[in-house]
């Protein structure tokens, strides 16, 4: 009695889990009866369960039927329910799940099958012509009463032999879905008139149970074989045939057609006696078969123990797998995030994303690379921390500043006068845009070749008009800008034209720099979005939203740059004291250079003259005076040009494109491209477009939530 209750308890645990739908998500221990449509499967099932399944011409099983037998004293209770397959939509699944029929007797089974077939929408049970012939749902029949055993067994539709059709493929797929379950014990029903090795059900079983460790062979229709062939069947029962099974074979005699037509009571009373008499015939008696392998009673008692031990062995594994499934499902739920079915939940979702995004942006623009975003900022590409935007902007600004100081001018005045090359750079006029920002030479839009002075200039020829302080490409700006100035002086127009020419490339170079910073920021924003927003659809919509703000910031920076460049076209004005400092320094450097060259010249001449020691002092003084006189610029226009050149260099050094343009419009406005306040101002349509959950994502969340509920309840049942 104690063992019987233990078996009942274990079976109930698994049955509860299966009834909840856990079998759709995890393999549960079970017995399944399967075979060809003409193998005598129904008679075997009736013999095991005592339930008379309807036999109707042209009618075959269209869905799996789970039969639950629980022995209990008292009045018999029969209940029919439906376990919907996981592939059903929620509406259909609910309708099927809500079906429950309490039967007064087995004679109501035909009506139950008709009703269930219609609910499942199967061909032959509904008026719809395109209805499927088979269903993956399960009819569950629970019998509590004087059943004599505790057992749960599943009856599968019979395989269709000898025909290649859609129906046969569907049935084969349905049967295989049970056989491939590693926790399924296969009860393969095989008619004795056929060779075991040729039976489709055996081939299917061997496909999934290659070692034959979970397959039981049930030989039926022994009354149809020819006399004298009993030995062939007996060899199979002894597991000596071509197909050997670890769980062995059982030998049955199904009721005859007359016995079936006589009704269930007649079968119950006579089946055991008829079977015993049949196998006492000389043809079978002489085979000396093990009585534990012959007859329906032997099969029933062994199945009860077999299933109980199978469950006991597999139950810990089932619990472990359910726990892993629950963990995986919960992780996936967490990745999906909270449900967003209403505008309020969607707006709240965007607000949280905005706060996270702004925190990351503020840390980046503030150069705070440690803390909760350190993993993001520590990502490297070719030894460069690409996500450290403040550091990257500093680096590009320094490159820009160096380029502006060394290469942004139109002409290199320091090189003027070094050689006699007359190679004009035909591309000078094309360099003004300076917008090449593709590589390390982003600011260098083809360096100019410059025209230099003739090495053989006669320094004593003060009237040489070509001996001026500017490249010949400029012509004679001192003459073209002449006003009322006295000889040897220059007006502001000369300095203005010179400065405008030298700074003509600034606009293009500065535009290129702004575009480089903008491109860098766009890449950074995309990386930040990828880090903070896990959903691709939301990320793409937010990028479109933010890109509009980034383009607006770029336009503002370009407009301010244009304003600054327009200001540079005005007459030169500066109140920067460095301007006069630079002029003084340049004049002093010029004087030092003149003295140095004069001294060198005097020393050279002195060494070449043979003079006495007494005359060396006077000679050195005379030679020094002569050398200095050569450095004096007598030509007044050339003198004005030299002084204008000094002033130009001094003024050029104190003017620059303001870095504030980048900081003010491109950097400081970054947190404002998606602030929390912007979410509050969004229309409901924009919120739904950006944060609305795709249908497939919502469906997946519902599937996971349903699975978590089923598995959690099932695990609680199995561990109770």
TrEMBL record:
Stretches of the chain forming a coiled coil according to its record: 319-346
UniProt domain GED: residue ranges: 633-720
Region (Disordered): 414-481
Single GO biological process annotation from the record: peroxisome fission
Keyword field: Coiled coil, GTP-binding, Nucleotide-binding
Biased composition (Acidic residues): 419-468
One Pfam short name: Dynamin_M
InterPro entries from the UniProt entry: ARM-type_fold, Dynamin, Dynamin_GTPase, Dynamin_N, Dynamin_stalk, G_DYNAMIN_dom, GED_dom, P-loop_NTPase
GO cellular component, one term: microtubule
GTP-binding among keywords: yes
Domain Dynamin-type G: 25-316
Molecular functions (GO terms): GTP binding; GTPase activity; microtubule binding
Parts of the chain that traverse the membrane: none
PANTHER family in UniProt: DYNAMIN (PTHR11566), DYNAMIN RELATED PROTEIN 1, ISOFORM A (PTHR11566:SF21)
Protein name: Dynamin family protein
Organism: Arthroderma otae (strain ATCC MYA-4605 / CBS 113480)
Taxonomy of the source species: Eukaryota, Fungi, Dikarya, Ascomycota, Pezizomycotina
